[in-house]
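Dear colleague,

Following up on Tuesday's group meeting, I ran the structure prediction for the two-component complex that the binding team flagged. I've pasted the input sequences exactly as they went in, so you can double-check that nothing got truncated or mislabelled along the way. The structure tokens for the whole assembly follow below. Feel free to forward this to whoever is handling the docking comparison.

Inputs:
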Amino acid sequence: MSTSPQDAAVAGEPTPDAGGGVDAQDLDSTSDSTKLASDAMVADTFGEYISAQWVKIRGGESGVLPVIFGLVVIVIIFQSKNGKFLSGLNLVNLLDQGAFIIMLGMAEVFVLLLGEIDLSAGFNMAVGAIITAELAAPPHNVTWSLAILAGVASCVVISTVVGLLVTRLRLPSFIVTLGFFLGLQGVILSLFSHDSHASGGNINISNPVLNDVVNGNLTPTAGWIVMAAAVVGFAGLNLYRDQRRRRSGLVTPPFALTLVKIAGVAVAGVVVVLVCNRNRGGFLISIKGVPWVVPIVLVVLMGYTFLLNRTRFGRYLYAIGGNAEAARRAGISLNRIRLTAFMLTGVTAGIAGVLYESYLGSISQNVDGGTQVLYAVAAAVIGGASLFGGRGKMIHAVLGGVIIAAIANGMNLINLSAAATFMVNGLVLLAAVTVDAVGRRGRAAT
Amino acid sequence: MDNGAGARSTDRAPVTPQTNGDRGTPLLRLSGIGKNFGAVQALRDVDLEIYPGEVLALVGDNGAGKSTMIKTISGIWSPDSGHVFWEGKEVHVRNPRDAAALGIATMYQDLALADNLDIVQNMFLGREMLHAGLLDETAMERHAKKTLSDLSVTTVRSIRQPVGSLSGGQRQAVAVARAVLEDAKLVIMDEPTAALGVSQTAMVLNLVKTLSERGVSVLLISHNLVDVFQVANRVAALYLGHVAGTYPVSELDTQRAVELITTGALAGSSASAGRD
């Protein structure tokens, strides 16, 4: 009995990471058909593709591979120190812990792509979470969907003001959002002081739906159905795109490669569902199923990746981040795109707030939005987004968020102090930035 | 004014091979253009004509008004006085968008390409082709490929590589292809060969010739007289904010061109087509 989960864990060792990894790489290169094409230009067969990829990695355009490698190393270290790290219970726990950091990291990607930053996103998230919590709790007892809507809307209002200050008054986003970073803490305190029902500066999440966002699970069957739908959709999109390119006489990635990718996603999906569907509760209470938060994060990730890669708005975000003057001369309305990016950061921070309070089961007036936003920026940068604009993908925030959650979780498991956790996180961030900077220099040199 | 223009064009020697004496309506005609910056008169009474398919080189020393001139044509600044005629009709170019709508594409020295985007993305930036509201990458890539091969740009390994990885000449090629894509009738190139190596320069000059063969007019601003003599049909020299003279390239040599640039006149000039 004790060996079998262990075996499963070992067999599944590369699963969550490699799973996430393959997933990542797929989203990465498929939604970005540009990358595929450039590889395909010099590669007609699978072997050639691999070698072209290797050249690229050496040239500093590594994509998500180093991040996945880092994640594998982290997992191996923690697993060797504590065999529980890869247990189903802990892995699901890790997903729950990391979800809001991932979401907040995705919020930051919008502004990071522009070369801006939003330091206020953490407290913005908290404000949204508090408003949602207050509305959903007695005496208001507003239905969960309206409560969430109100919370997200207030986040959007705040980020719109930030965006207007940055675009209309041309103030640096760092300073504007630092101002909001401080000011919103006051807003939070005043929200609590006006709520007579918040006991001891704390609002509990009693609404079952809000509570289940992170703590609830899909039924095992539903988990399989969702996973199967995702894989089929992914495969269909890929094959359709290849087909279209082939019919137009453009270079198409080798068929084998597309198959490998689809297989990778399928394997990753199966493993995640298998791990989550295993009973991770005790003998008396059975807990199993994929947590709600997994499909939620996946849907947002896919939606945003689509937005960045397939729409004009996304294209212009990259263009402005790469060369604002070029974008201006191309007739792009810089201010409109920038403002929209800040507003999307607000929307995403609002969603992150729901995940955050659901995970904690309550929201307190001492919410530390400062640390959370720094973790979120770190997640995006660790994952591979650039602080200087123009480079980054939504999947980067997801991978970086998983790394940060894995470190926090693993450190906790092996009973290291908070002090050590902070230091290790700092080191990982420094390492990520160094890899990025060295890679950039490599690119410049070629 | 029209009389003046008519008179000038009669005494100008024929240049473009397909025309003979009468070259029809100029694509762009500037008449009496003036531009002041405070007390500084950057341009005064500038007259200039560019005919379809010709390469007109604009030469002049630093501060002669070349930049002011192209910025005026491309709509960044409005002229304080004078008239602009496009294909015979008077137009008012108030901003770069007006210029683009007419068919004027300006390639500045810095080229304004986004390094992080690939060639196709840069070529279509701001004018992306859509399919059901979404970016139509397939169609854009096909068009980009065709445009580049029409321009005989073959040195690019992949049109999906980021522009940041291209050489200076290749970047020029992308910028030119961008202008061709938007069906520009007049391409203004500001020092396109500055900071380029020999083979890269040759490549860019070839692009200029290709553009001209396709019927696109090119206004080429250059310090490099060797380049000018290689591709230009006519040379217009700016001197202290006005056109010191416009000559067919056959009537100039490097020495005379330098004289024109530095003194604003040719000693013993008989063929001068310019005013002053």
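Residues 1-21, 270-276 of chain B have pLDDT under 50 and may be disordered.

Cheers,
M.
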